[in-house]
Amino acid sequence: MDSATLIASHDRGKAPVEDWLRALPQDNTPSRAIHAALQAVIVDPKFASYASAGKLAARAGVNVATVTRAAQSFGFSGWPEWQQEIRARYLGQLNAPELALEHEISVAPTPFDATINKHLGHLTSMRRGVDRRLISDFAKAIATAQRRLIVASGSYGAAGKILAHHAGIAGYRCEVLEDSIAITHALADITDKDLVIPMTFWRLFNSSIAAAKEARRRGTPVYLITDQMVSPIAELATKILVVPSEGASFFPSILPTLSLIEGISAELVRIDPAHSNKAIAQAERQWQDFGLLFFNSPNFPSA
User: Rounded to two decimals, what is the model's pTM?
Assistant: First the structure.
């Protein structure tokens, strides 16, 4: 695909972002200044995806406080949260080659440095912005559910498996569902005492939406981990944890999600330490009984 085709494709991608922005509910009729800030985002969503509040304000001809008020009028806490949503939706319109072109120009000396810089930025943002109460809510939901179904595909299937692994060792066994048939079968007998955890980033899979719809139809709570607060699947969620997923190339970043999963897993252990310590001890005995570890196996030379 040549550059001209990619640029044309970028122009076509503006319409879905604009449609989403215009459809966002507002608390009241926007002022002329807030409307100007909104128009600045609509005219150039790519710019808005990466600009500071000050730069967007300058582009719109308003002050920084107006940009904050504009974000809050749409239900976001401020510009960083609104911008995360804009960027996720903008990048979600791009295919893999387009996404690679988006990150082609970088001040980092190597792709590795660009990747590390991106991760550091994401983790800094998460440390400031993630609601700790939501982390606790997710852990409590996992701990109290009878069945725990994690719906995750692609590279995020690996993140789903890590959550299942950690939660299982802590005493809360989970099922990981990666394909449509497995999802369909697993949802056949879920109840309001179970829990469905979809993980979906960048481009939304229809199977994840279908799982959330079926869960809600059956009264099963849906605890969503995603990079967009406003989306067809977010509308179905009981609770949402929003995590950045933009990588430094066409690969989405899973590090922020893994950090979140480790935090949820640690919170799980804190809910019922006696239960988790017993489960961890049992898992350790199983590892030793099965001879999984070299240092605990007969092959390890004794002194």
Answer: 0.71
